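Take a minute with the sequence and fold tokens given here and flag any structure token that looks odd. Thanks in advance.
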Amino acid sequence: MLYAFGFDRIGVLVSDLYLALPSAEQGRERSPEQGVRLELRILECGDADGSLRHARPITAERPLWRVDLLETVTGPAGSLDQAHHHPNFQGWAPGRRVFDPDLSADPLAWVAERLSDLDGVLAEIGMASSAAVADSTGLRAEVPHVMDCVSRLLEGVRSGRLGQPPGDGPVQPTRKSWL
């Protein structure tokens, strides 16, 4: 499932996620993970082709920042024991996972606080925050709605409806998610 919130130039995308990385990529054997992924992305809105009544193309371009509210599939449900964020990207590739003690202590409050301070997040990633004044104001007002979506997705993962592996066979390296 995918939720998208669009502001002036920045979008917030939220999706359930099932992730089983190849052992070589992880550096060690690890259980698959499931949970919720949230990304800040650049949004592009194209021109309507032909008429003002025509639909406009909308593209969620490159990611700027990501938070993964994940837990190991073999761990206790609801633990979010693998919650981390990626404060930087090189093009489409995320930087290393960053495990923040405040994120681990209260993942939902941490995400809400970061989204409420879009200027601070953008400054940390080296993007001029003045370019996103409308985005900051709009996002701050919508944080409760974004967090409601995050909570509903996490509940869907915990209930087994979302964030599940594809098929019933042995676990293969895979990512099942919009993001």
The chain has one domain: 2-176. Residues 2-176 form one domain. Strands lie at 2-6, 10-20, 33-45, 58-72, 84-86, 89-90, 93-94, 174-176. The CA atoms of residues 13 and 123 lie 20 Å apart.
